[in-house]
Fold these 2 entries.
Entry 1:
Amino acid sequence: MIEIFTISFLVALTGALSPGPVLTFTIYKSLKSKKGYLAGLFVVLGHALLEFSLIILLLLGTSFFFQNLIFLIIVGIVGGICLIVFGFFTIREVYKKQYEIEFNVNEKKIEGFKGNSFIGGIFYSLTNPYFVFWWAVTGLTLIINLKISFQNPLGLLLFFLGHELGDFVWYIPISTFIYFGGKSLNPKIYKYALIVCGAFMIIFGIYLVFNVMFFPPSV
């Protein structure tokens, strides 16, 4: 069971570290709200509600296909390849440019990033073009390979908690740091964290591809 929690956490952390609409919204709310130190918490709670709903929908909508060996093999291979590609691009982007997140509000950049933090966590997750795609392919691959199902409620709970912890350990400290005057994140720390997460994605993706090829899932 600890394997489910750990893998879910590391995969989620890699996605959380990548800049996107949710991070921009969190920065805005942390700077502009009276209780900005809580912005990250509410953003992640909204994001978590959306992801919990998606997990349930995936389990409900694909339960029939879980009995199809060809479907399981195809999803396993495609999902593993996506993890490899995502990890590769994450590392490549680190070396292509200097990663540094400046915590300031550029009015043009954050135009439209307003509203309730909790609702924003849902809305700005959906505005990320990779979010739904990630869950439809990579998320589904993890669910299949980690044998997440309604028949295994503890595994389902650990998968969800591990995934959300990956968001909590990034967004909440960032939100607090910004609120109390932090201007930028140490680029070396950010860079190496991305490299480690990218390498994990590649290794785990390779494992998934070979595992599903040589040890096909049972139906």
Entry 2:
Amino acid sequence: MLSGKPYKAFGEELLAERQHAKEQIFELNSLRPGQIEERNELIKKLLGKTKEKFFIEPPFRCDYGYNIEIGENFYSNYNLIIIDCAKVIIGDNVLIGPNVGIYTAGHPLHYEMRNKEYEYAFPIKIGDNVWIGGNVVINPGVSVGANSVIGSGSVVTKDIPENVVAAGNPCKVLRQITEDDKMFYFKNYKF
């Protein structure tokens, strides 16, 4: 599965690992809102790697957990789904909006291979300082470059370079991020 080769997801071993993750996720999503420390401890046990400062708004879903790495100062809003059949590596200072899906798994185009229950998985990498808007879908094998912004509702099917605003279905680069953007929303305020 992790090598990018075709595999069957419904074998006993992978099914048991997903069931184990689901038990942890059920517990995590069932905690009261004020139980942040308990939630963070469960996340640290579930995910492959975390740093010290992160906040994941429940509900959260993933397949295995151990294939996910999140950087420092990570934040995700409600309903983050990560299908982590391959590695998902997320950098520092990443913001993820609500209802985002990060999917490393895919299925064969030809029905005969799908009917034999084969699938594949390719890793996803999200660089430092990335903002992913609500309702974005990131497909298998995609990288999002550092400092970029992915507009709400985008479907990311190809790599996105660093320092750009990208949006759409399929997601395309709209423009570079410049120094003028630093104060765009705050031009009437003094800091």
